[in-house]
Amino acid sequence: MTEGAGKSPLRIAILALAVAAVSLTIAACGGGGLSEGSDSEDVTTATAGEQTGTLKISNWPLYIDKKTISDFEKETGIKVDYVEDVNDNDEFFGKVQPLFSQADAGGRSIIIVTDWMSTKMHKLAYVQNLDKSELPVVEKNMLPSLKNPDFDPNRDFTVPWQSGMTGLVVRKDLAPDIKSINDLFDPKYKGKVTVLREMRDTLPVMLLAAGVDPADATTEEWMEQIDRLQENIDNGQIRRFTGNDYIQDLAKGTVVAAIGWSGDAVQAQFDNPDIQYVQPAEGCGLWSDNMMIPSGAPDTAAAYEFMNYVYEPENMAQIVEWVNYISPVKGVAKILRKKDPSLADNELIFPTDEFLANCSTSDTPPGDEEAVKEVENAFQDVLAG
Fold first, then answer.
1. Distance, first Cα to last Cα, the chain
2. Are residues 126 and 35 in the same domain?
3. Residues 70, 153: one domain?
4. Among the listed residues 138, 118, 136, 137, the one whose alpha carbon sits nearest the alpha carbon of residue 127
5. How far is the CA of 238 from the CAs of 70, 85, 111, 296, 356, in angstroms?
6. Judging by DSSP bridges, how do beta strands 285-292 and 159-171 pair with one another?
7. Residue-wise pLDDT tens for the chain (385 aa)?
């Protein structure tokens, strides 16, 4: 997600393009401090070690069903402290950075963040590389299309949790003609549209709407979209920046359309069928949220056990049935077809290649760290008002 189920989460073919748990650095329980100057050369592999019997997981809100944790506890005897404290990638990073920079995981053995943040944490050696010999079920059942994403080509430090699309979430009864990101800027919808405060969700779909492939976009083109946002905040066209709370605005009718996440729309339809995901005419953004093992994780053995557990198709089907994001595990559609064919046929959960044809996995501005920071700071200036 990238935000609040991190999008709420709501995140397979997704992925001939490939989208995005992990482990990274210092020994599982140990070691000296890590600074902002650390890089992936400092990363070590998370050895399983002895199990403590307690597993703390940090995840986005509404990103798991009501039974999986208790089922896992009963099957394994491992007590799980499941915390929904990832509401925004940057916010979560800011919260854990003082600890993670000292190889202190804050008791966490699994964290779940989006592709680009996974890369950032790995470069800082805040997470450990994975011992794939400890992940036989993951290795067996991960969708082939997810095994070699650009940000982690060998899945050295990440295990996909869920995937999803960034596009339009629309009240079709109030704005039936919205089909493009550009339609959000029609004056007749002034004050009734929102965009995500996650830069790497909002700006790529705006670039696509401007006819620019995010993978080829220049810094200047990213800045042009930031200027467009500023203009439409200043003139009142955009109501506000949001996490996944835009769903409440849509439910109330104070907002008629939003840049949002596919899974949110599927969930919202249970209460209001007029809230629908609309694939933008120019294409969507594709992403994954990923499990990773932080440096200093107190129970890497339990982390590996949980990763394998959720990669059993029956167990992942239970999660996907509830969260309605895109499964990273083979065989889930077949299981859900027996339970609820409408889920198995839903292109927001099991999208076809055609449905994803114009979508992009590129979500980071070009250039070196300084150039990326320039774009990030400009976007934050707009957020700050």
1. 24
2. yes
3. yes
4. 118
5. 42, 27, 32, 42, 27
6. antiparallel
7. 644 444 443 333 333 333 333 232 222 222 233 334 445 568 889 898 888 889 999 999 889 999 999 999 999 999 999 999 998 898 999 999 999 999 999 999 999 999 999 999 999 999 999 999 999 999 999 999 999 998 999 999 999 999 999 999 999 999 999 999 999 999 999 999 999 999 999 999 999 999 999 999 999 999 999 999 999 999 999 999 998 789 999 999 999 999 999 989 988 988 999 999 999 999 999 999 999 999 999 999 999 999 999 999 999 999 999 999 999 999 999 999 999 999 999 999 999 999 999 999 999 999 999 999 999 999 999 999 8
Q: Are residues 280 and 293 part of one domain? A: no
Give yes or no for a contact between 247 and 176, defined as CB atoms under 8 angstroms apart.
Answer: no
* Contact criterion met (CB below 8 Å) for 238 and 195: yes
Q: Let me know: does 60 contact 9? Beta carbons within 8 Å.
A: yes
Structural domain for 143, as ranges: 13-163+287-344
Q: Compute CA 180 distance to the chain's CA centroid, rounded to the nearest angstrom.
A: 22
Q: 229 in a domain, yes or no?
A: yes
Overall number of domains in the chain: 2
Q: Indicate whether 8 belongs to any domain.
A: no
Are residues 239 and 291 located together in one domain of the fold? no
For residue 209 the two structure tokens come to 């709407």
Specify the pTM.
0.84
Contact 211, 282 (CB under 8 A): yes
